[in-house]
Amino acid sequence: MTKSELIEQLTTKLPHLLPGDVELAVNSLIHNMTQSLATGGRIEIRGFGGFSLTRRAARMGRNPKTGEQISLSNRYATHFKPGLDLRERVNQSRMIYPKIKDL
Asked: Which Gene Ontology cellular component annotation is one that this UniProt entry carries (predicted)?
């Protein structure tokens, strides 16, 4: 699902709200979540999951095109841990709609 698809679905489900207001709300939510992570915060949405930052240490990597070794510096990566409700719903729906290949 893309951001525009989310806005479209919310607009359909909430016809009393103007599409511009729905778009503003979604953009504000994403902006606030981004700011929270950028300042070292954590995001937790009960039933959905939590977002946090993990630190990746510097290491030697390899350019896949040339095979040349390159130095990769320290960086932060966003980590998502799904909540119990989300995990259960996904597992239930996989039994009903098995269109994604199982690994």
From this structure: cytosol
- How many Cβ atoms sit within 10 Å of the Cβ of residue 73? 8
> Could you list the residue range(s) of the whole structural domain that residue 91 is in?
42-102
60-83: pLDDT as tens digits:
999 999 999 999 999 999 999 999
Q: What is the pTM of this model?
A: 0.74
Q: At what angle do helices 3-13 and 19-38 cross, to 10 degrees?
A: 130
Residues 65 and 76 grouped into a single domain: yes
- Would you state the pLDDT for residue 100? 60
Both structure tokens of 61: 């990597």
Backbone angles phi, psi at 63, to 5 degrees: -70, 115
The count of structural domains within the chain is 2
